[in-house]
Structure prediction request, 354 residues.
Amino acid sequence: MSAAGRKRVLVVDDSALIRQVLSLILDRHPGLEVVGTATDPYDAREKIKALDPDVLTLDVEMPRMDGLTFLGKLAKAHPLPVVMVSSLTAKGTATALDALAMGAVDVIGKPEMDPVQGLESMGAEIAETVFAAAQAQVRSRPPVPSRNPLPPPRLAPGRQLIAIGSSTGGTEALHTIFQSLPTGLPPIAVVQHMLPGFTEAFATRLDRACPTVIKVAEEGEPLKPSTIYLAPSRLHLRVERRPTGLVARLSDAPAVSRHRPSATVLFESAAAACGTRALGIILTGMGDDGAEGLLRMRQAGALTLGQDEATSVVYGMPRVAWALGAVAAQHPLPALPSRIVDWCTDPLIPRTEP
Prediction:
């Protein structure tokens, strides 16, 4: 923190205009102070030593060394919260997902057409993204290892839906959970806060890496076992009970807790549609989205779990939910796949939870 209590930001971009625009946007935030800029990773390395920033914004495409290569070096030598600045193209999206897998906390989308105006129009969102990243727990870490999924379960009666909400740090948390889950589970509905245009690519990447089918939810589609449904960009995802079973409902209703899609919207719909027959989980993320909705699930008799502070990149959403009494039990991230399978197979749960 600076003397004024603001998080210190270093802006790294080869464009002088982009450096200027980002600096102005970030300096307007009461919790941020831009302490310097750098033109490329070599310049950034020296500025990090001299200025000791709390968080970096890092361009992807730069001369002498690209941002992804620098991120990998930084993660090993000097772990620091990093927000990648990526163009909103197919190539840029893939690179951004690579960056998140390597340890970047979040991604800012740089529009290809008129990037300056585009960044200015997203000013408040960009500043909040960087401010959230500055509070992240970043550690030197190896890549997420591949895990053999747990054996297919024999479901206990009345297990109908698993609902999950996550934000900052959630992409890798979801990957960690989903690669360990077996097929044969009830449908899983997920709200992960992401930039528009990234959700489809993220779902495709998860689907290739995990044993279950993972896709973006479509309006009115039946929710099937052994399938994970991600909320689309800029649309709320709710579950609704029909005579034939659960279906996905999408809407562009106003944001809730500043988010659309909102985890609270998903959780509240799960409480109404499934009651005791649902499991709710809140993962790492900045802010309070999901807390009120998860409380509705617990009040309806569902089991509700939260990621613990030690394994959360940002212990914001789980902290608020825990303080509100919405979470029955907190667990480290690596333990959550087993807890999910336990709920699916043990008819005594949730009565065995506190």
